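Homework-ish question, so no full write-ups if that breaks the rules, but can someone show me the predicted structure for this set?
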Amino acid sequence: MWAEIVKKAATFESGVLSGIDAEGYPCSVRCAPVPDDGAQILRCEVSVGIELRPGPASLLCHSHNEQLWDLRSLNVRGTLERDAQGWFLRPTAIIPEMAATNPIGMIRAVVQLRRTAANYLKKRNLPAPAIPWKELVAAKEEAIARGRAAASSSRSGNRSIGGLR
Amino acid sequence: MLEALERSSAGVATAVRQLTFPVEIEQVFREFRCAEMATLAKDGTPLAWPVVGFYRPERGCFVTTTSIALPQKAYNIRRDGKVSLLYSDPTASGLVQAPIVLVQGDATVSRDVLTWNDDLRDLVATLAVRQPSSNDNSKGRFMQWLMDWYYMRLVISVVPRRVRYWADGDFTRPAREIEVFHVG
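A: Not a homework solution, just the prediction itself:
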């Protein structure tokens, strides 16, 4: 498990460390985890002013491209601890990810997702709800057309506030 | 000083607490493609997943959704509604040196499985533009049969109670708190 965590974590620039704060709420911070191979822990620098409690925690590394695709992730459960050098996560498990990297994996993932959805409905004795495909496709087409018009408008010099979009 | 106001609608018996945040914070909520949402698992472990969230200031909350094929975060919230949303990945947002924002709050999940309402229409429309590959999910009868689970969703609402941010996305500096007033 440790070797897999180190190998995968190295492919991300940073991750999101989630712990619990003094009031019992989840509290997440972005950090660049540094593996300590000897102790098999991930050292994480936590920003000043964030009050985490030692205890159950997790690290999520994920990324997407400009088109919100090429989704990749690594999710590690563990315990958050602290020593003289600062905070660290002691991993206890890798949470399996649903992302598939090949067509076979994709089919398996979809079959599993369909099964989970069917079980959700079955447990509650609910019929499969109808999907309003017509409205759904129309909403997509309208949004795409709007997006094209906005892009065209932007190219012709009409920028949105601050020119940030 | 940055400040957020939670306002009640004047003259309305059941006041809706509206949210207002500084422009640069609201831009993050609107333009970041996803947020990392942490919920509490059965054993108390905070587990985060990337989610597409919507800022709903007029309703005083943030909204996200999840398919019933990926219900774990909904189960967690039904057990314990404490959650956090971290807006920390500006990829594709178009924002430069954007702040990173941490929202902590209390979440609720719809009981009904929904396939269409204003929130789901916004999700579909937003992803149609921001995630073009997702448009294949609804093309043709076979894909509609194969991917119907994706559109069977639970709606999650998060009412913020504490908001902090890191200016310029710089985690080496201390987080600053944005006060959320509870009025009415």
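Now go work out the reasoning yourself. Hint: Residues 133-155 of chain A form the longest helix (23 residues).
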